[in-house]
């Protein structure tokens, strides 16, 4: 999957009434695009970072870092996130280094409409998740 | 050790950055090479398999032909015996013996081909399984690598800009505020619409002389006159 093609196709795309804004991010200026920043209209603070391998498209939204979590609730937060993850449509909760994330994975064969739908859903999921987990934050 | 297990080991060993523990360029190169080697081996094994299968069916056909001929000649022998030609019957029987010797030679050859076919098929299946396994592992490594790269790119390109992501709580509040504003705007315009339709209706009713009609000078004059 070429991220460049995806960027061109997704830019300005309107899905479920939301407009998508795409910003390709280059890796160390060598011309290769390693990640796309996608912002779903109205969710400016929760950008989705899209990257791809031969097999899958991976969409990651950063939720919060470990330092933002009330230390005494960290253990409970982990448990809660494991339990919650199953209930979230199309997205899962995860941890990259010390960054808590919401992510979704799709086959590279996914049609554009479904990719766009997943991105919109992920933005809504991210907001819902943040709201649901707000009490765990400092 | 599977890649996932390596990741867990690294995590339990206190590594916070999983990528570095698992993704070295070497690991990817080795996995890719193994996949390529296995796929070559499969292609070769499939070539041999088709050859052996062709030999197998050729030998099978030969055996069937000989068996047919034996049957045929047994018939001839019986006919010769019925006619009392013992010498001819013996000669035909010798021919049958020749065929049977040939058959005895070919039978083990066929068995050999058959077991080769079974063995090659088993080998191909095994290699295909291991290719699939390596591909899956490669996918784990590549995903880990991609996420790592994406994070580095995002950090380096966004750290200078204003769009640097701030604390989650702020983000949450800002989005909520924006949604609230949007809701308020929609509500306000709905109310405005409703008022407008109210006003329209009033105007129409007035024009038709229904409801609270405006006091007209002529009406007042008429009322005063009537008193």
Can you give me a brief rundown of this structure?
The complex is a heterodimer of chains A (138) and B (227). Chain A has helices at 3-10, 74-85, 112-133; strands at residues 14-15, 18-26, 33-40, 48-52, 56-65, 92-96, 99-107.
Written description of the protein model:
The complex is a heterodimer of chains A (about 140) and B (about 230). Chain A has about 140 residues and is α+β, with helices and mostly antiparallel strands. Chain A has three helices and seven strands; from the N terminus they run αβββββαββα. In chain A, strand 6 and strand 7 (about 100-105) form a beta hairpin. The model of chain A has no long low-confidence stretch (mean pLDDT about 90). Chain B has about 230 residues and is mostly helical. Chain B has two domains: about 5-155, Orthogonal Bundle (Helix Hairpins); about 165-210. Chain B has six helices and no strands. The interface between A and B is medium-sized, with 36 and 31 residues.
């Amino acid at each position: 999957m070429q991220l460049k093609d995806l960027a061109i196709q997704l830019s300005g795309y309107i899905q479920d009434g939301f407009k998508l804004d795409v910003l390709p991010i280059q890796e160390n200026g060598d011309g290769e695009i390693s990640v796309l920043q996608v912002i779903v209209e109205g969710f400016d603070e929760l950008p989705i970072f899209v990257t791809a391998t031969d097999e899958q498209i991976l969409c990651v939204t950063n939720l919060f870092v470990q330092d933002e979590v009330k230390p005494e609730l960290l253990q409970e937060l982990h448990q809660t996130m494991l339990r919650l993850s199953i209930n979230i449509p199309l997205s899962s909760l995860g941890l990259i280094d010390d960054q808590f994330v919401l992510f979704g994975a799709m086959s590279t064969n996914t049609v554009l409409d479904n990719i766009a739908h997943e991105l919109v859903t992920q933005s809504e999921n991210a907001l819902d998740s943040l709201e649901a987990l707000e009490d765990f934050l400092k | 050790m599977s890649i996932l297990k390596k990741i867990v080991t690294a995590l339990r060993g206190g590594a916070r950055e999983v990528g570095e523990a698992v993704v070295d360029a070497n690991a990817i190169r080795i996995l890719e090479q193994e996949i390529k080697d296995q796929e070559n081996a499969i292609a070769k094994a499939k070539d041999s398999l088709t050859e052996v299968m062709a030999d197998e069916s050729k030998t099978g056909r030969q055996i069937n032909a000989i068996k047919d001929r034996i049957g045929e000649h047994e018939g001839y022998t019986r006919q010769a015996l019925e006619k009392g030609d013992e010498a001819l019957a013996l000669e035909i029987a010798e021919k049958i013996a020749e065929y049977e010797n040939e058959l005895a030679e070919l039978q083990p050859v066929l068995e050999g081909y058959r077991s080769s076919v079974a063995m090659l098929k088993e080998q191909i299946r095994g290699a295909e399984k291991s290719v699939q396994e390596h591909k899956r592992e490669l996918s784990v490594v590549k995903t880990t690598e991609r996420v790592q790269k994406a994070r580095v790119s995002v950090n380096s390109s966004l750290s200078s800009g204003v769009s640097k992501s701030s604390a989650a709580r702020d983000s949450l509040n800002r989005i909520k505020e924006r949604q609230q504003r949007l809701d308020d705007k929609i509500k306000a315009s709905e109310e405005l619409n409703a008022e407008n339709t109210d006003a329209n209706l009033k105007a129409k009713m007035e024009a038709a002389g229904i409801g609270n009609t405006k006091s007209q000078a002529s009406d007042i004059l008429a009322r005063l006159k009537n008193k």
